[in-house]
Amino acid sequence: MEYASVVDAVRCAVAVQQAMPERNTGVAADNRIELRIGINLGDVIVEGDDLYGDGVNIAARIEALADAGGVLVSNTVYDHVRDRLPFVFEDLGEQQVKNIARPVRVYRVCDIGAARGPSAAAPPVLPLPDKPSIAVLPFANMSGDLEQEYFADGMVEEIITALSRIRWLFVIARNSSFTYKGQAVDVKQVGRELGVRYVLEGSVRKASDRVRITAQLIDANSGTHLWADRFDRSLEDIFDLQDQLASGVIGAIEPKLRQSEIERAIRKPTESLNAYDLYLRALAESEKGEAGLRKAVALLKTALAIDPSYAAAAARIAYCRIILRSHGFQVSEEEMAETGQLAAQAVRFGNDDPEALAMGAHGAIYFSRADGIAESASDRALALNPNSAWAWVARGWVLVLRNRPEPAIEAFERAMRLSPLDPHTYYFLGGVAFAYLYRRRFEEAIEWADRSLNHEPNFTPVLRVKLVACAHLGRVEEARQCRRRVDELQPGLTIAQVKNYPGMSVSPEIMDLFADGFRKAGVPET
Q1: What distance lies between CA 473 and its chain's CA centroid?
Q2: Would 404 disulfide with which of 42, 153, 176, 399, CB 3.0-4.6 Å?
Q3: How far apart are CA 498 and CA 464, in angstroms?
């Protein structure tokens, strides 16, 4: 339908949707008509009775995003009618739509049902929080055994509790989520009524001594499935099983949630950024090598200028500079001193943010050698979120740098179990290599170092581990090959330099272990 006035187009769309319930009254279900309407303002190409072009295509794509009985409009429509019509519009954010190069900002007309009478009035639409938001719906019991309801409900409560420990996530309380129990729900409607961007739903099926959990994460705005998985376990200890399954679900969906938020922030126009969006953009940049890491630091500093108490931003700067330094890139003395202060700031302000505490702990021991602060911060991070892979990584590195290799290995293995496909796997593996070196189990140290270097050949700390382990085993030529590679990445390696290297353990026996290995490989004293 084409209109000369965009105001008339929106008025007509709302009038049509308001009239449809009356039209469908008394009509058999398979004869009812439910419409979705999308409206866009733009140029069209006219050929006879046909209209086409991007203006039409965008309207069609917006229509596909709408709920039955709903009206969605593009940002161009909203800009023209928002002060001229008595309707409430909900901002659904930018949507990437098929065959349209640029994202389209979409708004929902919210008060369409106002003329239908009190009994048909739609619930109020809650605004989205200023951080990612999720509701976990009651899992369907597929066992055919009503006595298993308690297990399914307990599973959801465990997941809600675990998600609630993630500070950057807004989680709907159990009592609200469970109002949908036993209902066939529209995920988009749930998103509107609870004011959340994401919905997790699933099912539980028990048979004999086995239980199968299926779960799927959905973007409530678009209805898009972001992730789905299945978990099979033996029913040996039902409460321990709930913990295991909750841990597995959280470990799987947390990276998906984070990645979805990063992609959403990247699509937003730069003039509408706030501190959190800057942080998300920095996360994306920090995976792009040296230039990306330095750009991430700049974005995070801007976020801190907006919110000086933003612990996660301060902690992420420490992380970026650890990665820069460990890959042989220049980090000045002033930047290292600044980073030590930022790590302490992250620990101070991040008292209830496990991610900020974890990265702040690592930065504190790496740049300031504040091992007591680092250990208490990593303990606090794990108390808040025992399912955080990065909290276990921080614990592992703190223990390594305090020369406690046995529990460090356990921490790194726990992290790898929680995030088996992590892009930073090399960092986890490298920590294990350090721990085995400190135990003087040189063969295992070389094995884990090689596994780390297979993921990231330029990870210089692990190259130094392999150098030292090979030297102590008398494999001098391999040690010298490692030394040449380290010299390429960090020219001018000396024993004196390594003794002052950020993050190097202050334990005298560990310093002697490195120094002796370097001497055997021909590394000069000064």
Answers
A1: 42
A2: 399
A3: 10
Please name which of 214, 150, 143 lies closest in space to residue 181, comparing C-alpha atoms. Answer: 150
CB within 8 Å of 382: residues ≥ 6 apart: 354, 388, 391, 392, 395
Q: What is the CA radius of gyration of the chain?
A: 28
Closest by Cα among 521, 452, 512 to 493 = 521
Phi-psi region of 70 (alpha: psi -120 to 50; beta: other; left: phi over 0): beta
508 contact partners, CB below 8 Å, separation of at least 6? none
Which residues make Cβ contacts (< 8 Å) with residue 484, sequence separation at least 6?
Answer: none
376 is written with which tokens?
């208490």
SS3 for 208?
A: coil
Decide: residue 477, CB within 10 A, 0-12 exposed, 13-18 middle, 19+ buried. exposed
The CA distance from 181 to 161, in Å, is: 18
Please name each of the domains of the chain with its CATH number.
6-120 (3.30.70.1230), 133-248 (3.40.50.10610), 423-526 (1.25.40.10)
Report how far residue 88's alpha carbon sits from residue 108's, in angstroms, rounded to the nearest whole number.
Answer: 8
Query: 């605004």: which residue's tokens?
Result: 127
The length of the chain is 526
| Residue appearing with tokens 């009038």 | 15
CA–CA distance from 263 to each of 94, 128, 251, 288, 390 (Å)? 11, 17, 19, 15, 21
**Distance between the two ends of the chain, CA-based, in angstroms?**
80
DSSP 3-70: -S-HHHHHHHHHHHHHHHHHHHTT--GGG-----EEE--S--EEETTEEESHHHHHHHHHHHHSPTT-
Beta bridge partners of 50: 47
Tens of pLDDT along 94-149? 887 777 777 888 888 876 654 343 334 445 566 777 778 888 999 888 876 666 67
For 51, the token pair is 């209209």
The DSSP secondary structure of 85-145, one letter per residue, reads SS--EEEEEEE--TT-SS-EEEEEE--GGGGG-GGGPPPPPPPPPSS-EEEEPPPEE-SS-
For residue 359, the SS3 value is helix
Joined tokens for residue 42: 């733009």
Instruction: Write the pLDDT tens digit of every residue in 283-319.
Output: 878 878 889 999 999 999 998 998 888 888 999 999 8
